[in-house]
Amino acid sequence: MLNPNFPVIYYGGDYNPDQWPEVIWKEDMRMFKAAGINIVTLPVFSWAKLQPSEEVYDFEWLDKVMDLVAQNEIKVCLATSTAAQPAWMSKKYPDILPVDINGHKRAHGGRVNFCPNSSVYRRFSTALAKKLAERYKDYPGLAVWHIANEYGNYCYCENCAASFRAWVKQRYGTIEEVNRRWNMSFWGHTIYDWDEIVAPSHLNEMWLDNGRQCTNFQGIALDYNRFMSDSSLQCYKAEYEAIKEITPDIPVTTNLMGTFKPLDYFKWARCMDVVSWDNYPSAVEPVSNVAMRHDLMRGLKDGQPFMLMEQTPSQQNWQQYNSLKRPGVMRLWSYQAVAHGADSVMFFQLRRSFGACEKYHGAVIAHAGHENTRVFNECAKLGAELKALGDKLIGSTARSKAAIMFDWDNWWAVEFSSGPSIRLKYLEQVEKYYRCLHSMNISIDMIGIESDLSAYEVVIAPVLYMVKPGTAKRLESFVEAGGVFITTFFSGIVNENDLVTLGGYPGELRKLLGIWVEEIDALFPEAKNSIVIKEELGTMKGTYSCGMLCDLMHLEGARELAVYGSDFYAGRPALTENLYGDGRAYYIASDPEEDFLKDFIGYICGAGDIGAALDVPENVELTQRFKENKEFTFVLNHNDFAVDINLGSGCFSELITGKTAQIMLSIEPKGVAILEREI
Amino acid sequence: MLNPNFPVIYYGGDYNPDQWPEVIWKEDMRMFKAAGINIVTLPVFSWAKLQPSEEVYDFEWLDKVMDLVAQNEIKVCLATSTAAQPAWMSKKYPDILPVDINGHKRAHGGRVNFCPNSSVYRRFSTALAKKLAERYKDYPGLAVWHIANEYGNYCYCENCAASFRAWVKQRYGTIEEVNRRWNMSFWGHTIYDWDEIVAPSHLNEMWLDNGRQCTNFQGIALDYNRFMSDSSLQCYKAEYEAIKEITPDIPVTTNLMGTFKPLDYFKWARCMDVVSWDNYPSAVEPVSNVAMRHDLMRGLKDGQPFMLMEQTPSQQNWQQYNSLKRPGVMRLWSYQAVAHGADSVMFFQLRRSFGACEKYHGAVIAHAGHENTRVFNECAKLGAELKALGDKLIGSTARSKAAIMFDWDNWWAVEFSSGPSIRLKYLEQVEKYYRCLHSMNISIDMIGIESDLSAYEVVIAPVLYMVKPGTAKRLESFVEAGGVFITTFFSGIVNENDLVTLGGYPGELRKLLGIWVEEIDALFPEAKNSIVIKEELGTMKGTYSCGMLCDLMHLEGARELAVYGSDFYAGRPALTENLYGDGRAYYIASDPEEDFLKDFIGYICGAGDIGAALDVPENVELTQRFKENKEFTFVLNHNDFAVDINLGSGCFSELITGKTAQIMLSIEPKGVAILEREI
Amino acid sequence: MLNPNFPVIYYGGDYNPDQWPEVIWKEDMRMFKAAGINIVTLPVFSWAKLQPSEEVYDFEWLDKVMDLVAQNEIKVCLATSTAAQPAWMSKKYPDILPVDINGHKRAHGGRVNFCPNSSVYRRFSTALAKKLAERYKDYPGLAVWHIANEYGNYCYCENCAASFRAWVKQRYGTIEEVNRRWNMSFWGHTIYDWDEIVAPSHLNEMWLDNGRQCTNFQGIALDYNRFMSDSSLQCYKAEYEAIKEITPDIPVTTNLMGTFKPLDYFKWARCMDVVSWDNYPSAVEPVSNVAMRHDLMRGLKDGQPFMLMEQTPSQQNWQQYNSLKRPGVMRLWSYQAVAHGADSVMFFQLRRSFGACEKYHGAVIAHAGHENTRVFNECAKLGAELKALGDKLIGSTARSKAAIMFDWDNWWAVEFSSGPSIRLKYLEQVEKYYRCLHSMNISIDMIGIESDLSAYEVVIAPVLYMVKPGTAKRLESFVEAGGVFITTFFSGIVNENDLVTLGGYPGELRKLLGIWVEEIDALFPEAKNSIVIKEELGTMKGTYSCGMLCDLMHLEGARELAVYGSDFYAGRPALTENLYGDGRAYYIASDPEEDFLKDFIGYICGAGDIGAALDVPENVELTQRFKENKEFTFVLNHNDFAVDINLGSGCFSELITGKTAQIMLSIEPKGVAILEREI
């Protein structure tokens, strides 16, 4: 639990009083209270104000703000302000400025515009974090630490190159091992000395092709991503340790960004007390994609509740078309976060800036400056509701029987791959499988490659291209013990260095799946093949369309449930099942239309008892959280019309209205219900 | 009047004899005379020939050319030749070479490839201008000075950064004021010293997104644009002053480029004796866009006649598809320039180059080298016609009752904006309003933000996003005195530093418009809303489509003429009218289909007497120029077929044919008539 | 003949044993023999292994490999391994790293990533070639030398700039001549010293526009291309000479890449003993385009048989969609190469790499590692077939009566042109004419601008924009002697420096063609004109569509066969014929639909006797090779269905089956027949 002394849903967000005159601050407090706000995040971008020069720190203005906040009984999510170094620092220590992938030395400006291996950055950022901890360690409202902001830039400077060499040496020990792991015999890349290692950039091994980052050497590129993710993590950890030494009991986080490719968040989460993230879907983002990101953020720390650190109350500014959240949508999406495991609902931003690029980003308080706005009213209404929920939901968790594996290394590797098809996007594949389960309201855990599988009945690993040491064995044990494992084309191909497992695809998964994939065909975008079901399985029957990639495979113990319908490999297996121990392992050899997946997942899950908690109309999302013997069922109506939910024989307490719900529950357009019962 | 001693329409163009052997020059003279050419512009790109080394100038070849030209009684538009510095200069003084927005130091070559803050450039360019003035001050045919050529590059070198700091200091005085004006508290940008100011480039605050220049810091970016526009202007002014000291009576210009975004031409025009510009529409450019650019060029100096410095007699080379101007089109478009206020018709180029990138650009004299070509014949015919017009039109001006405001700062600010929609393009909006008035042949002045409004009945300011000091007051006075003011969504939002005017949109225009805009919705491209007219107003009735942005507003004194047709803000005002003093102020809250605008403008102008001079068929353009008690009505038939114009009771003298025109005037396809009468 | 001592079709490909442990090598030999492989190319990328440091060479591992290969009676195509310098070399001598067109100094990595004017590169690469020649000069299986690999990078470093100046000085002698040849008066580019010459790059005269490399100065850009093609050629020649001194009798090649724009392969071929090339069509590449490239590669050395050095047995990795070659396609396309003049069929690669970017590129031996794969079986079957053909075809040549001119300088010049239309692509035009003749199975030679024309009845030169010294005269002589010459719009415009031939287009071709082109209209993509045939000529009649460019021309001796159907030049000539001496010269004034070309070529060739050898269904390709009194007719069925070929009265021996073919020959889908008979 985030804060046993304050067991409520945190409600608030980013607050930048240093952008406003003091006279506004009091008005802020009044309006925050009117909106039910109980936490503010600050000072996220005030390094230059907190440290006007190398020798001078100035906390007085912040003391004032924090005092005022404390007087108003609002908690503080205390930010270390280290995401944008002061201009004097970049000027005095130009090495702090990064070099981009094109070899351009950056100039001061923007944000997250520092070299993550800069010793100057690390020294000053850690010093500031320490100063803040020392000054505010006894602050009564200190609720959470928020280190820096949205980490994630990659640097290609000489200092990073040197650090990379050290990182590689640490990882592989000898030059010979590096040559082997990166297959340096290829294209005569064999090296004889550590300083022959060069960072992979657009100046040598990398290039952009239609927005896709391509590379000649997957092994080097992969390790550079790992190294860069680690480099930023080192920055974070340095601050984390400085803080924990002083305030060991205050949870520390940094705001993540969902499916943000540059950083391996599973590795990061190990160093975070609580996961927090910023949720900025566009208006046309499928609901299931947002749900998946929430579940992934929850999964980073094995199901522990997370914080929704940022969302907009109304509109973004940086998207192409920054449409308003329609009436009710902010509330609905806030509850969606809670439904998937958030113990906070927080906004960027509380008061709209009046200058620079985020001034058209929505805020609780508009440029108009008063509370008579649609957005403020919706925020205040939600604040009151959340307050009324008290500690009911705090600390409750999901209990899923189905899991989808997600792995950053695999993501990087799949999309660094030269061939077989540029259409293959790892995230899209994961989203597709998630969407299918989500449409059936099956509760899903998004898990890492090393997560414990014992609690699950079904584990799905779309495009499990990279099989790391121990993974195959763990999956075999899972299936042996009765689990159902589903994977797809382009799985089991390489090891953690993107070296092909020789002897036949899917390599280390071959035994578990009982197949040998001889060839992989890539289809042009307009081309299609089909999957022909041999025997009806649940609703799965007849013929489905498929495309993109088609594996040509041989059965080695598995049985074919479906075959290709056309091309020279018509009649060869397209879907296989392998009985293994007490369980079953499935292989989907091509990229099918979604109806296939729905029917297939329906068949798989229908066999077990991992379906939805209630029978609901389309676009009504159901999720559950549990705490001890309490079950909370969230019913989220994403439709523009009201729906009726058949509660069957269940009798629930609806938490928002406080009423009893029985037989039939009616939910307004964009409405929400939280049904509690004992189990 | 450009030249009281030579009161005719200048006819000629760019002449590059230094690209040809002397033997050709005499032939040039023969053909120029055959074509009716009375002016040549030279030597536009001869710096390297005029100054072979730092110490040596060579004017002998130019003397010869100018003597020959004088003998043939052709005037000279004398160019200072400073748009492309000699190679020896770039080699000897590499600081003269600019750094581009990506941080790349440029190499010698191209043109307008110098740092506008290079002291070397300024010293040498001014010296050359002075030398030319001294040498040719008594040249009999010296008609106009033409400084450099098509200014407009931006530089990001260290020298410019230093100049930028000085410019900022000059403008704002103190560091505190800079921090305030640029809202540097945002993202921790607070500075403490002048040299912490860094030029905004792709290395820090700027990036390109689908061709759009984006920025984190609008305030800095805006000021850098202003500074860069000023920097080139300083180059121009240095030459201007050197020249004026020697030949104070000869008008000085530089060739502008219409709606050229990088330079604030209103500011430039103050330093020009006469505006001149280069008109290169593609074959598919709407006629109204060309008309608008002519009117804008005329508007730069409050209606004073301008020079058409360049157009092609047949085709361009640098467009994607360089189609030929169809027979008659060159003549038609030449008269269009005159109709909108040009006192010259000039070409790039007189003789086609035979090497390098402009060799496929049309010219009066083709590669064939003789006069038996379609293009030469059309040029010669026009030359004879213009000569016959004598001084009739020279110095005559427009008398518009409608004006459209245009502002470069606003243009930059609207398109630097992060949010609400990347579809919002300032120029497109202005063109849309202009097109609507143009289709009704309403005479329009394109005016600046500080122009005198007293002569107008209607002033339209599409997307008046930035309201500069004094503007709101001037608009209020205009309306108070009986004027009609029309503006749109995304107006009145910010001040001249792109800082939001707090308290509610449209900020400083709120009182005048009598509304409060609470929120701005951005629609996805395929999405539409509608504008439903409440009571029929003229031809305006029923429902019109709208999109892109939709303001959600409250009436604060205004009345709603139309409301939205759908979405959650259906029924809320979409078009308002506010009675203010003796006038009216209108607000169009969304981006409507063109029919709406035509009906609305028809309603507005129908009320006054600012319609067309004559009733003409579609695609027949009407404009008027006036001189003392003479009215000249230009009838331009842009159709591919002949049209008949009903002259009603008017009786005119048609200037080209010299005949009297009465009752019905027939105009050939692509034909022109100039109707004169006394008023 | 490649190797009189080994007169068979070489069958094999790239072999990289240094990427594998020794234990695999023996297995390789077993499988190579099973596949009928008789040659391996090695070591293509082993420089770092062969030369671990500046002083040390290590050939021992290569000795072992070559001994093993020799024991298995497999020939060696010995690569000099110089396409990727070792990392230690780039580190020690950073000048070896190139600078790209954006001015970015490259970092070590990739391949062909050296400055072609680096003296370090030339010294070390030549030394290695010499060492290899000395060591293996007596190796029994030494069949061909393979220098470096796929040359072609351009460099823009200071060292190259200096070399460019020397190259220019060598070519033009004086500064005055350079100013004249490059028309440096334009835009004031006149230079006074050699070191004022700057390499044309994105930092001055060049820029990219939608993938098209644009330039301000065609003359400089053209010469820089020539210089860069020559620079890489110098690298090649240095190795060539070192090798020839030691093994004068072994043929030397380097692998070309078909229509690879950066290098002027006609110039390169003069320095090669045998042409070899890498053929990587995508699955959707028209058959005729592949055929054209084969013919071009054959044409580089005036018809001499060439080597197919690389193709994939199954799929590529670097294309967007790397589809499998369908069953039979690898065999069909291999025979297509032979049919067009190849005396080898070789693959990249023999064993699939397991790491880095080519691991998903097809190979004879798959990752599975054994021979029980579709691909291996197809390779082995083809190996057996080729072996059975023995020396039958070796050294046989084509005997074409039609030729298409192709010229790299012209290609560069056409696409550097600023105007009249960016749609004009030289290669597309050549492919279009080739495709038309190919569809009629007319045997075509792809010839250079200086090739002997005496053997041909018809010579086609699409878009012969640049006419070099002597070309016009040679074409006149050809036609005078009875030949038929066909050319198109945008021909005869410039000389070898891209300077327009003054006096009227088509310049030097004007006399031969009997026309004067006054203007060139460029049509927008959606616009069309038409070509109206005046009198029926063969199947050519009625009206055909045309577009892109339309010449407006006058007859000067020619007669018009067709006229334009619309626009203001309707009725003016669109197709002309000029009787000249005993021959005829045709001019096609616009870009016609393909039916026009088919009918026109049918009319032209129907008149002569240059049609197909047999009457075959669509998509059946026919080609012939001849050796002394033997005629070999290749019948290639590109259809997915079987076809019957009417052999008429002919009686042939079918070489693959060894059977007699008479009256009717049935060919399976994707099938091949080689019909031999005496003539």
TrEMBL record, chains A, B, C:
Per UniProt, where does substrate bind? Answer: 111, 149, 318
Keyword DNA-binding attributed: no
Which GO terms label this protein's molecular function in UniProt?
beta-galactosidase activity; metal ion binding
At the top of the EC hierarchy, this enzyme's class is hydrolase
UniProt keywords (A-Z) are: Glycosidase, Hydrolase, Metal-binding, Zinc
Residues of the active site are 150 (proton donor), 310 (nucleophile)
**What is this protein identified as?**
Beta-galactosidase
